[in-house]
């Protein structure tokens, strides 16, 4: 009896083992079949790559695609690697320090490391330039943000900023190239104001923020003060000064005065004066007197002697017409009333020479000197009325041609 029971027990154990093996094999087979079916019906896997893990050709394609897409988030360790442990400094200021670096494939970059985790500036730059792509705007490749640091990764521009050529005794740019730089920068700002889905006000247009690539193609940069605005809003609420003294529009000095995108137009007008003069607008004399170049331009225009002024600034006869045209555009841009200033698309047209520029009214000699009464007295004029004063669509040559056709 005991022998029979032992045999039965052994058989039961053996049957259990065989059954377990069968179940295990069946599950493995079913899992394999399911995996094969999933692979057969699943869409192709996306080719997601990371810039620091791929070879040079793939990185180059990645960076080209990146120019039209969202910026990449890098880690602090990757930023350290890109900059070779922050070994080469390009510049510094109140915002922080800019370091030179490069991606693994050799593409050069400029890394701006912000001071004191300036979250407002960080969000301003990511939220504005990170949404845009234009040949005359600095390209943002990516950023880094953690408890240790905030950094922005930009394309590297070999020739630095415009100010070092306008205000230097050792480096200079010829007039023809300065004229091209003015038009390119104007196109970049016009894109921010008029072509983006949400209007972007830069708030700090100046030569130091116009960067130049290897061919001196201008690109507007430094969006640390920039703001996105809905197109339906006619003005922006500003609680403090924005910009750099000498380039800020006069309305910033007034309490409760509406600030519009035309504050950038004023700043650009001040830049145009410096491009024409190839000098700073304000120079202190030996007796502490102020040599204010915009006033000199107006005085010469009022006398009908803009040609004399351009000649004194070393501009050749063949380039005088373009220089005089730029001077008139500058005078229009720095009008006291924001509504009297042309939009940047009109500025581009006037600089390019396809229209006849109308004589500008007299602006203030110094920023803020007009005061509240001057600005408000001009603000009431409609923008449609002001528009008719900037330029005529037909040039004198076209008008002469039209008259000849009419007499046939």
- Distance between the ends: 134 Å
CATH architecture of the largest domain: Orthogonal Bundle
Total helical segments: 14
Helix-strand string = HHEHEEEHEEHHEEEEHEEHHHHEHHEH
Strand content: 5-15%
Helix content: 40-55%
Structural class: alpha+beta
Domain Protein kinase: 84-369
Main location: membrane
Keywords: ATP-binding, Kinase, Membrane, Nucleotide-binding, Serine/threonine-protein kinase, Signal, Transferase, Transmembrane, Transmembrane helix
Protein name: Protein kinase domain-containing protein
Structure description:
The strands form 5 sheets. Strands 1-5-6-4-3-2 form a 6-stranded mixed sheet. It has 2 domains: 56-155, Phosphorylase Kinase, domain 1 (2-Layer Sandwich); 163-400, Transferase(Phosphotransferase), domain 1 (Orthogonal Bundle), CATH 1.10.510.10. The chain has 14 helices and 14 strands. Strand 2 (89-93) and strand 3 (96-102) form a beta hairpin. With 408 residues, it is α+β, with helices and mostly antiparallel strands. Mean pLDDT is 80; it is low at 36-49, 367-387 and 400-408. It has helices spanning 2-41, 56-66, 76-82, 119-128, 163-166, 175-194, 262-277, 293-302, 306-312, 320-333, 344-352, 371-379, 383-390, 396-406, and strands spanning 72-74, 89-93, 96-102, 108-114, 140-145, 150-155, 199-201, 210-212, 218-220, 227-229, 282-284, 290-292, 356-357, 391-392. Helix 6 runs antiparallel to helix 11.
Short description:
With 408 residues, the chain is of the alpha+beta class. The protein has helices at 2-41, 56-66, 76-82, 119-128, 163-166, 175-194, 262-277, 293-302, 306-312, 320-333, 344-352, 371-379, 383-390, 396-406; strands at 72-74, 89-93, 96-102, 108-114, 140-145, 150-155, 199-201, 210-212, 218-220, 227-229, 282-284, 290-292, 356-357, 391-392. The protein folds into 2 domains: 56-155, Phosphorylase Kinase, domain 1; 163-400, Transferase(Phosphotransferase), domain 1 (Orthogonal Bundle), CATH 1.10.510.
């Amino acid at each position: 009896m005991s022998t029979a029971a032992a045999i039965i027990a052994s058989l039961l154990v053996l049957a259990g083992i065989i059954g377990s093996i069968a179940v295990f094999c069946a599950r493995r087979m079913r899992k394999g079949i399911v995996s094969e079916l999933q692979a057969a019906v699943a869409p192709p896997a996306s080719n997601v790559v990371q810039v620091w893990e791929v070879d040079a050709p793939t990185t180059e394609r990645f960076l080209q695609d990146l120019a039209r897409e969202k910026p990449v988030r890098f880690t602090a360790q990757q930023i350290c690697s890109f900059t070779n442990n922050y070994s080469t400094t390009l510049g510094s200021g109140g915002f922080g320090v800019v370091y030179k670096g490069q991606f693994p494939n050799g593409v050069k970059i400029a890394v701006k490391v912000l001071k004191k985790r300036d979250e407002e500036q960080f969000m301003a730059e990511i939220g504005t330039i990170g949404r845009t792509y234009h040949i005359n705007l600095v390209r943002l490749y990516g950023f880094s943000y953690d408890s240790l640091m905030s950094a922005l990764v930009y394309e590297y521009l070999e020739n630095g900023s415009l100010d070092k050529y306008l205000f230097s005794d050792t480096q200079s740019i010829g007039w023809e190239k300065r004229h091209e730089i003015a038009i390119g920068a104007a196109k970049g700002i016009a894109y921010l104001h008029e072509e983006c889905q949400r209007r972007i006000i830069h708030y700090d247009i100046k030569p130091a923020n116009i960067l130049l690539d290897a061919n001196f193609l201008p690109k507007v940069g430094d969006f640390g003060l920039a703001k996105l605005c809905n197109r339906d809003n006619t003005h922006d609420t500003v609680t403090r000064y924005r910009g750099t003294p000498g380039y800020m529009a006069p309305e910033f000095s007034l309490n409760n005065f509406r600030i519009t995108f035309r504050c950038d137009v004023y700043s650009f007008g001040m830049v145009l004066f410096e491009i024409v003069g190839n000098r700073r607008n304000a120079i202190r004399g030996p007796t502490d007197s102020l040599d204010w170049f915009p006033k000199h331009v107006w005085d010469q225009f009022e006398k009908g002697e803009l040609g004399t002024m351009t000649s004194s600034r070393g501009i050749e006869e063949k380039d005088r017409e373009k220089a005089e045209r730029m001077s008139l555009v500058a005078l229009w841009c720095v009008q006291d009333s924001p509504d009297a200033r042309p939009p940047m698309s009109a500025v581009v047209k006037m600089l390019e020479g396809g229209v006849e520029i109308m004589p500008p009214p007299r602006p203030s000699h110094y920023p803020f000197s007009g005061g509240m009464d001057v600005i408000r007295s001009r603000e009431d004029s409609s923008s449609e009325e002001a528009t008719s004063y900037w330029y005529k669509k037909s040039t004198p040559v076209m008008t002469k041609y039209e008259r000849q056709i009419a007499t046939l």
